[in-house]
Amino acid sequence: MSNRILINNISDILVFVKVANVRSFTTAAQLLGISRSAVGKSINKLEEKLSSRLIYRTTRNINLSEEGLIFYEHALNIIAEVEELESTLNKRNQIPQGRLRIDLPVSFGRMHVVPILFDFLSMWSEVEAEVTFSDYYSDLVRDGIDLAIRIGGNDDSRLIRRVLAPHRLITCASPDYLKKRGVPELPDDLLNHDTLVFLHQGMPVSWRYQFNNQYHDYRLKGRMLFHNSEALRDAALAGFGLIQVGAFLVGEQILKGELIPVLEPFCREEEPICAVYPTRRHLSPKVRKFIELIENKWQGKAIWESR
């Protein structure tokens, strides 16, 4: 029997087997939830396709022809194979497996996502991971990335954004620095302080505040400029000046008293931390389960500020 019969007429084969089992068009139609005429059309299509009469019909009885009996035996095997394939695919679709390609922000990813990835890989032995780190927004579709964790929004209509946790910026310095230079009370006071500034794409990142119902950006010269936010934090810990960084980077040091927040009344709300992935009708189990694990760990909170 050709594969074309299986591919193009599987629904008709299911109808035929049901009719052969119950020996009634009406009963078969009721069991399948279709009309009696639809049952007849399926049988006719098969007979035309095979150029053979499969069923002899009278007003009272339905009997299989010799060809119908042969086809019935093959049809049972076909249905069994289809059901086995469906079962296999359903099981596969429930179990995370294959290579998970993730793109992460450099510092945030290393500090707060990679440990969860380790847990995930320990839970699901059939998953492999390929992780890239970048503070730029890569093209997930072009680069074949399954999932990105991003700080901030996304304007790409091809992508789905799922909020994972809040995000805020903190201005802080070491106790020694503040003891020597004083605590800034207003954002304008920063002009009289040593500041340590992050470089993004070669440009100093402005410090952001909110007051008088407006947003204000401060472009600071910076005594030291860093392409790496963890080095920026280390310079602040060493007492070289003030920094403005994500709370995720300094939460532990603030809890320990190694860094002191300042200008908190002027902090403005920032875009949240999100999972971003290409628009797909069915999200793969490896991506879905990994996002769910992150959500379970964080519970929608900035846990790096409360450990």
From TrEMBL:
Entry keyword annotation includes Cytoplasm: no
Alphabetical keyword list:
DNA-binding, Transcription, Transcription regulation
Which BP terms in the Gene Ontology apply to this protein?
DNA-templated transcription
Among InterPro entries, the record links this protein to: LysR-type_TF_proteobact-type (IPR058163), LysR_HTH_N (IPR000847), LysR_subst-bd (IPR005119), WH-like_DNA-bd_sf (IPR036388), WH_DNA-bd_sf (IPR036390)
Q: Pfam families under this entry?
A: HTH_1 (PF00126), LysR_substrate (PF03466)
Q: A GO molecular function for this record?
A: sequence-specific DNA binding
Q: Does the UniProt entry include the keyword Transcription regulation?
A: yes
Q: Where is the HTH lysR-type domain?
A: 8-65
Q: Which Gene3D superfamilies does the entry mention? A: 3.40.190.290, Winged helix-like DNA-binding domain superfamily/Winged helix DNA-binding domain (1.10.10.10)
The UniProt similarity line reads: Belongs to the LysR transcriptional regulatory family.
Protein name according to UniProt: Transcriptional regulator
